[in-house]
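Project standup — Tuesday

K.O.: blocked on the structure for the chain from last sprint. Re-posting the sequence here as requested.
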Amino acid sequence: MTTGALPRLLSINSYHYHRGGADNVYFQHAELMQQQGWKNAFFSMHHPRNLPSEWSRYFVDEIEFGHVYPLAQKVSKAIKVVYSFEAQRKLRALLAAWRPDVAHLHNVYHHLSPSILPVLRKAGVPAVMTAHDLKIACPNNKMYNDTGVCERCKGGQYAQLLAHRCIKDSLAASTVVALEAVLHRLLGSYGDNLERIIVPSRFFLSKFVEWGWPAERFVHIPNWIDADAIQADDRAGDYFLYLGRLAPEKGVETLVRACVLGGVKLAVAGDGPLMPGLQAMLHDGAGNVRLFGHCEGDQLAQLVRGARAVVVPSQWYENAPLSVLESFAAGKPVIGSRIGGIPELIDEGRTGWLVEPGDVDALVSAVLMVNALPDASVRSMGRAARARVERDFHRRGYLAAMMALYDAIGVRGVSAGSSSCEASGFPDLGRVQPQ
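H.V.: unblocked you, prediction finished:
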């Protein structure tokens, strides 16, 4: 980059639309850097729901697990999941046309594949990655299958994926992902080509170290939320709210059973593979539970504002769910599972409550207890939750930590002078040792 030129960021993610939390962070981070005067480029996969982008001519062809493809296409796409020469070719073309100062990766496996990482290193582009899940340790990025939380792959025992069909409950898909894991472990695709890995939760850092990664490769930078853009509501509503994907690892079935048993009102905002089963479960009654399906915008905001508390009943190693921070910003306390990074966000008895994951009886007790609390106590906890977000999970702290990281890896044109972690308002944001 020439003197005085604006720094350039290349953001890389499999999806170029708001599909989930990782994709939201992908866009949010790029927008934040643009607000600091950076120039942005994007590298992703074609998809019918993609947002318009001038960079789409460099995007790779769509790959989706579960789609019906002719046999020849299935073989071709399986090869790309393991190692994508197409992604390498198109990334080289982008780098030839536009030279970034740093590449920031989010979720790239399966669709872009880690094969793009050596391309960045060979081009002299420093690369960092935000670990939104546990993929760089376990090929099944959730460390969760139909037996519950699973760590049988530790130490490279990837045959366990086939034995338990951990990917989509499919032997074929599990075989492809196991091959991907073996190949990129041998090639050192992540370890040799990433300057740093950002973890939003301390739990993830500890888990990666437990699985053999050196602690010094990680930087703990929590997620942030624009609390000013979320209207806090001081009401203590009369129903509980779940918002998110309806998938087994999210614990929503456990929550529905608990609310049916406890006779408390529950609103469920979201969609996913469990929707038909939940509809069947509620078919014969349970009028206290209402399924709203996918919600966004004003409809979702109204559901959050009217809730007594939000429930995050996850049964997998959740990272640092934005749903907790968004609920806090709306002035709502949270009942969360004591698993993964969730306990790092909830001050028990002050901004919410913690329960054991998958424990229906514990959830029944929790929702009944919160339902019986005086409204004044619920409102007080909601105000404390809002204050926690404003104090510890804000834009300027995230930006200061990220700019300090970019500066540390030698990104030209970045000065961390006024962006010290000590001044950011984030607690202990440098490289941290696992606890």
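K.O.: great, moving the ticket to review. The first helix runs from residue 21 to 35. The CA atoms of residues 18 and 27 lie 8 Å apart.
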